[in-house]
Every structure is written in structure tokens, then in C-alpha cells.
Design goal:
2 domains, Homeodomain-like_sf, single chain
């Protein structure tokens, strides 16, 4: 197994387990087992569980950047914002089962003494992207609309997870689409 491959397997395992179980409920042994590597190998790539958390947050941020950059294929800000809502709906099964990967991790880390900048960067990036899109439509209300849409998406994820209900995500995404039409017409 190559060095890059081992590191990526560890990172993927940690990302999955932190999302499904939470950072604190996931042990280094759990990650090693899921990655199919010896526990000692983790220390070669990541000095601590905290450095692994940083790498997971950085990886999630890169994935988010790539996803949102892909929305540039849509012609208008409204279409790009609609695609954002579609992204939430497309993940409804995971949201119902595990909550929002960004919001859950950010909330969990926010209650500790661990540095928050890495997990906060995910929500900051999302909020700034939304703000930029709304700014192209209505600069005066862009910040408020960006915060509202992110809050709706995060609230939807929280409720869906709490009730383990995919249909709740579908209904709330329909409501988000309707809200978007009202404020952009």
C-alpha cells in the first residue's frame, strides 16, 4: 500500500467515523480498524487525533469548495442557490441518519477546548459563498438572506436527524425553493 493511499484511507475512515459517531466517540483504534491499518501507522501521518480532525475539516472544506465551484455551470445566481438547496435534498438520507457533517462537527468541537477555526471554516465558507450569490441579486439583503438560507439548511439537518426523517428534508427543501423564488422575483 502506498504512503498516499494509506494516508487517504486513514483520512476517509476518520471523516466517516467523525461524521457517523462524532469526534469524541471515535477512538484512534476505531479509525485504524476502519482504514485497515495498524494503530501505530496513524501516528506516522497524524501526530494526534486533533491533527487528524484538522485534516478532516480541511478535506471537507476542499470537498465543499469543489461542489460549490461546480455550481458555476448554472447561468444565474438563483439557479446556483437552487442547486445549493438541491445539494441539501440530495443528502437527505445521510442528514436523517447522522445530521449535517459540517454543523454536527462544528457544534461538537464548539463545546470543547479544541481549536474551532478548522470546523468553523466550513460554515464560514458556505456562508460567504451564499452571501456572494445573494449579493449578485440584492446587495442590500445579501447577508441576511445568506444567513437565513444557511440557518434553514442547518435547521433542516438538525430536525431530520432528530426525527430520523428523510421526508422532512424533502419538505423543507421545497419550502426553501419557494422562499428563494419569493425573494428573487
Amino acid at each position: 500500500m502506498s504512503t498516499d493511499n494509506s494516508r487517504n484511507q486513514i483520512l476517509d475512515a476518520a471523516q466517516t467515523l467523525f461524521y457517523q459517531r462524532g469526534f469524541h466517540a471515535t477512538s484512534i483504534s476505531d479509525i485504524a480498524n476502519k482504514a485497515g491499518v495498524f494503530k501505530g501507522n496513524l501516528a506516522y501521518y497524524f501526530k494526534s487525533k486533533q491533527s487528524l480532525l484538522q485534516a478532516v475539516a480541511d478535506n471537507r472544506l476542499a470537498q465543499l469548495e469543489e461542489t460549490l465551484a461546480g455550481f458555476a455551470n448554472f447561468a444565474t445566481p438563483r439557479e446556483r442557490l437552487s442547486a445549493f438547496i438541491g445539494m441539501v435534498e440530495d443528502t437527505r438520507k445521510n442528514l436523517a441518519r447522522h445530521g449535517c457533517p459540517m454543523g454536527s462537527l462544528s457544534t461538537e468541537i464548539g463545546k470543547t477546548s479544541l481549536p474551532k477555526e478548522h470546523t468553523r471554516a466550513l460554515l464560514d465558507y458556505c456562508l460567504n459563498w451564499l452571501h456572494g450569490e445573494f449579493n449578485k441579486i440584492e446587495p442590500k439583503s445579501a447577508k441576511q438572506h445568506a444567513e437565513t438560507l444557511l440557518a434553514m439548511a442547518q435547521g433542516t439537518a438538525l430536525l431530520a436527524h432528530n426525527f430520523n426523517n428523510e421526508e422532512l428534508v424533502r419538505r423543507q427543501c421545497q419550502a426553501m425553493h419557494q422562499w428563494l423564488r419569493v425573494i428573487t422575483d
